[in-house]
Design brief:
The complex is a heterodimer of chains A (250) and B (314). Chain A contains six helices and 13 strands. Chain A has 250 residues and is α/β, with parallel strands linked by helices. Chain A has a single domain, classed as Rossmann fold. In chain A, the strands form two sheets. Chain A has a nine-stranded mixed sheet, with helices on both faces. A two-stranded antiparallel ribbon of chain A has the order 2-3. In chain A, helix 3 packs across helix 4. Chain A starts with a strand and ends in a 5-residue tail after the last helix. Chain B is an alpha/beta fold. Chain B has two domains: 168 residues, 3-Layer(aba) Sandwich (Rossmann fold); 120 residues, Rossmann fold (3-Layer(aba) Sandwich). Helix content of chain B is 25%, strand content 28%. Chain B has eight helices and 16 strands. In chain B, a hairpin with a 4-residue loop joins strand 6 and strand 7. Chain B is elongated and about 60 Å long. The chains are: A alpha/beta (250), B alpha/beta (314). Chains A and B meet through helix 3, helix 4, strand 7, strand 8 and strand 9 of A and helix 3, helix 4, strand 5, strand 7 and strand 8 of B. Strand 12 of chain A pairs antiparallel with strand 8 of chain B. Chain A: Belongs to the ETF beta-subunit/FixA family. Chain A: Its cofactor is AMP. Chain A: It comes from Photobacterium jeanii. Chain A: Keywords: Electron transport, Transport. Chain A: Pfam families: ETF.
C-alpha cells in the first residue's frame, strides 16, 4: 500500500504573530517557520503504518515555493520515502490546493491519503474534505485512532459529543487530530540521509489546473484588545468583585 | 435568492448551534430554509417548524442519513442546492459542520468561508485566522457562499411555539456506501453543554491529577457551570477530549470563564478570549493567562479552590 501525506509550511505555532500595519496580512519575513503541527501527526501516522507493515511507501507532498522543501526534507528525515514539491510562488486557496492534490493522487494512486485537520495559519479546516469530495472518496476527519485491514480502514473520530467510529472503504482520505499520535523527532543521521532521498519538483502549470482566487482578503486586522484586568489579593475579594462589580455570579 | 441552513441534531434534539446559525442567516434578509436529514426526525421537524425566520423545513427521512455521514449528506445537499435558488449555504462550525461543508463546497465547485464571526454583507465576512490573533475581512466572488458560523459569536434565534414553517418532504436517497457507522461513545454529563454554558470552569495541567480535577467539577457544580480543559489536561487524561477549549477544540464565549491552573498558551486563548469576564487562578504570576484575565488571583489552587467553593456556599 502507498500512503500520500500532504504537508504545509506555516509560521511556527509558538511565534506570536504580528499584523502588518497596512492591513495586507501578517508579518512573515524573518519569522520562524515550521511544518504545520497537524501535518507532523499525519506524517508520523504514515510512518507508523509503514513500520507496522501496512504500507510499503510513504510519499509526502507540499505546495509552495522553494522554501517548502525544508519541510519536505524534514518529513523525509522522519521516515518518508519520497517527496514532491508542487512549485508555485502563489498562495492557493483550499479548493485550489484540493485540486492540485487531486492531480497528484491521480499520478500516484495511493490507497490512503493523510492530511492534518487544519493548518494553524488560515485555520480553515477544509482541504481534506474538499479533496475527498473531488476524488469521490470516503473521508474521516479529526481522526484519533486508525486501524487498517485489507480493504477498509476503521477510524475513530473526535466529535463534539465524544468519539465516533467509522469504517471506510479504501482508498480513503483521513485528516488527523491532535491525539492520533505523538510525532517523533528526526535524528541527525536521518537528517543527513534525507538529503539523498528523492524530491521531485513539479511546476504547478504542468498540471493544467485552474487555481485562480475565488476570494479576496480585503483586510487583515488586529482583534480588539481586552482591557487590562486587576489582581485580587484574596478569594473573598474575588467573590465580591464577581458578585458586585462584574455581576456574573449571584 | 434563498439561504439554506443545514440542521445538526442527535436524532432527537436540534443542536443549539443550529439555532445560532439561523440567527446569523436572518441577517442576510432573505428567505431561510432548513434542511433536516436523518432517520425518522419527526419530533425535530415539529420543533423546527416553530423557529422564527424559517420559511420551509426540507425533510429527508431515510436510514442512509441516520448518522449524518458527510458522503451521503454532501450528495443530498448538492442535489437540493442544484434544484433551488440558493445563494448561501450555512451550518455551524461544529465538528458536524466542519466535516460536511467543505465537502459540499467542493461538490459545488465553490470556495468556503470557515468559522465566520460576522456577516458584513451578502458576500463579505469576518473570520479569525492565526488562532484568533488576527481577523480577516474576506470577500467571496463565488455564486454560492458556503459558510460555517462560529456559534459563540451569535445569539440563539427565537422558537415561538407556533408552527409557521411549511414542511417539504424530499424523496432523495443518496446511499453512497463509502463509509459505515460503527459506534459512538457519548460522554454523558448532567452539566450544561460547553458551547451553550453561561459559566465555564476550566482546568489545566496545574491540577496535577484526574482526582484533583474533581475540585474543578465541584466548583462548576456550585456555579451551574460547564467544564472545560486545556490540551495539557486532556492529554494527561484528566478529562475527555471533547472538553478541550482552544484553537482546535471548542470555542466558547460565556459570561464568566474561570481558568484554573492554565498557563494561557496562544492555542488555549484562541478558544476563550471572547468571554465576557475572565478569571485566572494560577501560582505563576507571569503566566500568560493573566494578560487576558479581568480578575487574577496568584496562589496555590489547592488552597484557593476549596476556599472559593466554601465562599460560594455562604
Amino acid at each position: 500500500m502507498k500512503i500520500l501525506v500532504a504537508i504545509k509550511r506555516v509560521i511556527d505555532p509558538y511565534v506570536k504573530i504580528r499584523v502588518k500595519p497596512d492591513g495586507s496580512g501578517v508579518e512573515d519575513t524573518n519569522v520562524k517557520m515550521a511544518m504545520n503541527p497537524f501535518c507532523e501527526i499525519a506524517v508520523e501516522e504514515a510512518i507508523r503504518l509503514k513500520e507496522a507493515g501496512h504500507a510499503n511507501e510513504v510519499v509526502v507532498v507540499s505546495i509552495g515555493d522553494q522554501a517548502c522543501q525544508e519541510q519536505l526534507r524534514n518529513a523525509l528525515a522522519l521516515g518518508a520515502d519520497r517527496a514532491i514539491q508542487v512549485e508555485t510562488e502563489n498562495t492557493l486557496e483550499p479548493l485550489a490546493v484540493a485540486k492540485v492534490l487531486q492531480a497528484v493522487v491521480g499520478q500516484e494512486q495511493p490507497q490512503l491519503i493523510l492530511l492534518g485537520k487544519q493548518s494553524i495559519d488560515s485555520d480553515n479546516n477544509q482541504v481534506p474534505q474538499m479533496l475527498a469530495a473531488l476524488l469521490g472518496l470516503p473521508q474521516a476527519t479529526f481522526a484519533s485512532e486508525l486501524v487498517m485491514s485489507d480493504d477498509t480502514v476503521t477510524v475513530t473520530r473526535e466529535v463534539d459529543g465524544g468519539l465516533e467510529t467509522l469504517n471506510l472503504t479504501i482508498p480513503a482520505v483521513i485528516s488527523t487530530d491532535l491525539r492520533l499520535n505523538e510525532p517523533r523527532y528526526a535524528s541527525l543521521p536521518n537528517i543527513m540521509k534525507a538529503k539523498r532521498k528523492p524530491l521531485d519538483v513539479l511546476p504547478l502549470d504542468t498540471l493544467n489546473i485552474v487555481t485562480s482566487a475565488r476570494q479576496a482578503v480585503d483586510e487583515v486586522m488586529v482583534p480588539p484588545a481586552r482591557q487590562a484586568g486587576i489582581r485580587v489579593g484574596s478569594v473573598l475579594e474575588l467573590v465580591n468583585k464577581l458578585k458586585n462589580e462584574a455581576k456574573v455570579i449571584e | 435568492m434563498k439561504t439554506l441552513v443545514i440542521a445538526e441534531h442527535d436524532g432527537h434534539t436540534l443542536a443549539v448551534e443550529t439555532l445560532k446559525t439561523i440567527n446569523a442567516a436572518v441577517q442576510l434578509s432573505q428567505p431561510i430554509e432548513l434542511l433536516l436529514a436523518g432517520e425518522k426526525p419527526g419530533e425535530i421537524v415539529n420543533y423546527a417548524q416553530q423557529i422564527a425566520g424559517v420559511e420551509r423545513v426540507l425533510v429527508a427521512d431515510n436510514a442512509c442519513y441516520q448518522h449524518l455521514l458527510a458522503e451521503n449528506l454532501g450528495a443530498l445537499c448538492h442535489d437540493v442546492i442544484a434544484s433551488g435558488e440558493y445563494s448561501h449555504v450555512m451550518a455551524a462550525a461544529t465538528t458536524f459542520g466542519k466535516n460536511l461543508l467543505p465537502r459540499l463546497a467542493a461538490l459545488l465547485d465553490v470556495g468556503m468561508l470557515s468559522d465566520v464571526i460576522e456577516l458584513v454583507s451578502a458576500d463579505t465576512v469576518i473570520r479569525p485566522i492565526y488562532a484568533g490573533n488576527a481577523l480577516a475581512r474576506v470577500k467571496s466572488n463565488d455564486s454560492i457562499k458556503v459558510i460555517s458560523v462560529r456559534a459563540s459569536a451569535f445569539n440563539t434565534v427565537e422558537v415561538q411555539g407556533a408552527k409557521s414553517a411549511e414542511i417539504v418532504e424530499l424523496n432523495m436517497v443518496h446511499n453512497l456506501g463509502l463509509a459505515q457507522f460503527v459506534s459512538q461513545e457519548t460522554v454523558e454529563s448532567a452539566r450544561p453543554d460547553l458551547p451553550a454554558a453561561r459559566v465555564v470552569v476550566s482546568g489545566g495541567r496545574g491540577l496535577g491529577s484526574k482526582e484533583n480535577f474533581a475540585m474543578v467539577e465541584q466548583l462548576a457544580d456550585k456555579l451551574g457551570a460547564a467544564i472545560g480543559a486545556s490540551r495539557a489536561a486532556v492529554d494527561a487524561g484528566y478529562v475527555s477530549n471533547d472538553l478541550q477549549v482552544g484553537q482546535t477544540g471548542k470555542i466558547v464565549a460565556p459570561d464568566l470563564y474561570i481558568a484554573v491552573g492554565i498557563s494561557g498558551a496562544i492555542q488555549h486563548l484562541a478558544g476563550m478570549k471572547d468571554s465576557k469576564v475572565i478569571v485566572a487562578i494560577n501560582k505563576d504570576p507571569d503566566a500568560a493567562i493573566f494578560e487576558v484575565a479581568d480578575y487574577g488571583l496568584v496562589g496555590d489552587l489547592f488552597e484557593i479552590l476549596p476556599e472559593l467553593i466554601e465562599q460560594l456556599d455562604g
